[in-house]
Amino acid sequence: MSILYLLIATGASMLFLALVFIPMEKVFPAKKGQQVFRKNWVLDLCYFLGQYLFWSSLVLWVLNYFNFWLDDLIPQHFRLLIQNQPIWLQSIEVLFVSDFLIYWGHRLQHKVDFLWRFHKVHHSAEQLDWLAAHREHPIDSIYTVGLINLPAVIMGFDLEALAVIVAFRGLWAIYIHSNVRLPIGPLKILIGSPELHHWHHDIERDAGNYANISPIMDKLFGTYTCPPKEPEAFGIKEDFPKNYAGQMLKPLLPELIWRKFIRKCLKKPQLHR
Structural domain tally of the chain? Predict the structure, then answer.
C-alpha cells in the first residue's frame, strides 16, 4: 500500500464520517450546544490520524499472524462444517459469540488494572462525539479487535469477509460514541445505541453497559443501565496526561518510572555562570 493511497483513503474516510455524523449531531444532539471544534478535538484528531495511518496496519498484521497461528489448532473438518452453513446463520453466530467475548473482555478491561492502564485512554475523553470514538491506545485496539474477531477467525472466515465485519463494527462503534440521541423505544433492549453507551462513559469506572452491538449480555449479567438523561460528566477520575504523546507513553511505563520521567521533563535547566 503506497503512502499516497493511504493518505487519500484516510482523507476520504474522514470526509465521509464528518458528512454523516456532524449533521446527525447537530439535528439530534445528546448534549445540546456542544461544538464541532470542542475541547480536545485536536487530540482526538491525532488519534484518528494515528489509527488510520499507522495503528490499523499493526492491528491487521497481528490479526493475520493470529489467523496463521490458529490454522494449525482448529480442525479443518470443524471449519468446513461451519462454512457449509448458510451465510446468514454464520453471520448471526459470529455476531452473537463475538458479542459474548467482547462483553466479558470489556468488563475485564474495567476490572483488571493492567488492562485498565490502556483502556482508560479511551475513557479519558470528557466530551463524546464521532471523533472521540477514535481515542484508543493501540495495545487496547489489538486486544479489542482480537476478541471481536476471534470467532470469525476460528470459524474460518476469509480476510475479505472479515474486513466487512470489522468495517461494520467500526461504524457502529463510531455511532454509539457520537453526540446523538435517537430514542428507539423498546428496541433499545435488543440494539445498542448512544444513549446506552454514553452511560458506559460515565465518570465512574464501573458504570456498566459493556456490550457492543446488542445490550442482551448486559441484561443477562446484570450490568444494564439506561437512565432517561445524559450522564453529568464523562472521563476518568484519575490524573492522566492531556496530550497524545503522554497518553501513548504512560500506560507502557510503571508508575514510578513515569513520575521520574515527568519530573525530569519538567525540571528547569540550570544556567551555568
Answer: 1
Q: Which residues constitute the domain of residue 106?
A: 39-185
Name the amino acid, one letter, at 160. E
For the chain, the C-alpha Rg in angstroms (whole number) is 20
3 state SS of 99: helix
Average pLDDT for consecutive 10-residue bins of the chain (273 residues)? 80 94 95 93 95 79 70 75 77 82 94 95 96 94 82 68 73 94 83 92 92 91 91 92 92 78 63 49
- Does residue 237 form part of some domain? no
In a domain, 157, yes or no: yes
Alpha helices in the chain (DSSP H): 3-27, 41-50, 56-70, 76-83, 87-111, 113-123, 138-154, 159-177, 194-200, 216-221, 244-249, 255-266
**Is 169 within a domain?**
yes
Would you state the torsion angle of the CA atoms of residues 269, 247, 138, 216, taken in this order, to the nearest 10 degrees?
170
pTM for the whole thing?
Answer: 0.87
What are the cell numbers at 268? 528547569
Is 144 within the bounds of a domain? yes
